[in-house]
Specification:
A hairpin with a 5-residue loop joins strand 9 (131-133) and strand 10 (139-141). Helices cover 14% and strands 34% of the residues. It has a single domain (2-304), classed as Sandwich (Jelly Rolls). With 305 residues, it is of the alpha+beta class. The protein has a 9-stranded mixed sheet with strand order 1-4-17-6-15-18-19-21-20. The protein is globular.
């Protein structure tokens, strides 16, 4: 099994793009172990710690790019997530100074002008025995997921804080142990990136941070030749799901629309459904998962396939 550690990476990345030199090369079908830093770039280890935005102004560092031999544009990359382990036995969460669910980025300037600031809310959450200890009253199940994972776009780099057709910062709880993620390949080698692991998160990353943790991710990466997809897909034990995202200033309903169009196309092309039967059946049985403020997964129960 090949490993990619923080020491190997040397420089954390804050964008997913085609311009970096690969930090690891693997064959299609290999299982890898990737060590990731948390979304705070390791700046928060105790309740007294604060984000130093002057030193590191970005969030969501990712590892990579990982070059996959044989991957070509218009192929599909699959990432089978086998195990996610915390490397420090704890996670952290906090309340950022602003977040989209509370208003637009410009509102931050108004709050600064009025000298109104949100509580920082730094919280250190131990992880042990399959549980996340939020506080003395609330114990949560350990349900790890990869918040940011994707392939390189063809001609640009995209911030690791943003999602898109390449994947990126989707923050979907369905990207978890036992799931297979399907990603478009836009360049030779695919250039896979991953990071921003969460110990647990509900639907919608409401306050802007989940229980963020440094982790080790074990995954098997494989190329599906001559199969093109336009948006990420997920397969779990219970569902297949098509993923789509909106962008700043675009309604989330647009992402819902695209996700279900992609899901219906998947049901038609791979499972033999009549397009209009799939359209009607999704109305009756489909589910929706929310990631962060931009990302949606339209989910179809596998028992109806």
């Amino acid at each position: 099994m090949k490993r990619l550690t923080l020491a190997d990476q040397k420089t954390l990345r804050y964008s997913l793009g085609p311009f970096y030199d690969p930090t690891l090369r693997i064959e299609s079908g290999e299982t890898i172990l990737v060590q990731t830093e948390d979304a705070f770039s390791g700046q928060i280890r105790g309740p007294q710690d604060r984000r130093n935005m002057a030193a590191i102004p970005f969030s969501n560092p990712v590892m990579g790019p990982i070059y996959v031999e044989g991957a070509e544009k218009a192929d599909t990359l699959t990432v089978k997530i086998r195990e996610i382990k915390p490397t420090r036995g704890q996670g952290a969460t906090r309340i950022p100074s602003w977040w989209w669910y509370l208003g637009e980025p410009a509102d931050h300037a108004y709050r600064d002008f009025l000298d109104v600031n949100l509580q920082h809310g730094t919280r250190i959450c131990p992880i042990r025995d399959g549980k996340v200890f939020f506080d003395e009253k609330h114990t949560l199940p350990y349900a790890p997921m990869i918040g940011t994972i994707g392939t390189a776009p063809e001609i640009e780099s995209i911030s690791s804080e943003k999602p898109g057709p390449h994947g990126g910062n989707m923050d979907l709880p369905d990207v978890t142990c036992g799931s297979t993620l399907y990603l478009p390949i836009n360049i030779r080698g695919a250039f896979l990136y991953m990071g921003d692991v969460h110990a647990t998160q509900g639907d919608a990353e409401l306050c802007g941070t989940a229980i963020e943790m440094p982790a080790e991710v074990e995954a098997t990466v494989e190329v599906i030749k001559k199969k093109r997809i336009d948006w990420p897909r997920i397969e779990t034990g219970e569902y297949i799901a098509a993923v789509a995202s909106s962008a700043t200033g675009i309604p989330l309903e647009e992402a819902v629309r695209v996700a279900f169009l992609e899901l219906i196309r998947w049901l038609e092309s791979d499972y033999g459904f009549d397009r209009w039967d799939a359209y009607q059946l999704c109305t009756q049985v489909a589910k929706v998962s929310l990631g962060n403020v931009w990302t949606v997964a339209g989910k179809f129960p596998k028992k109806y396939l």
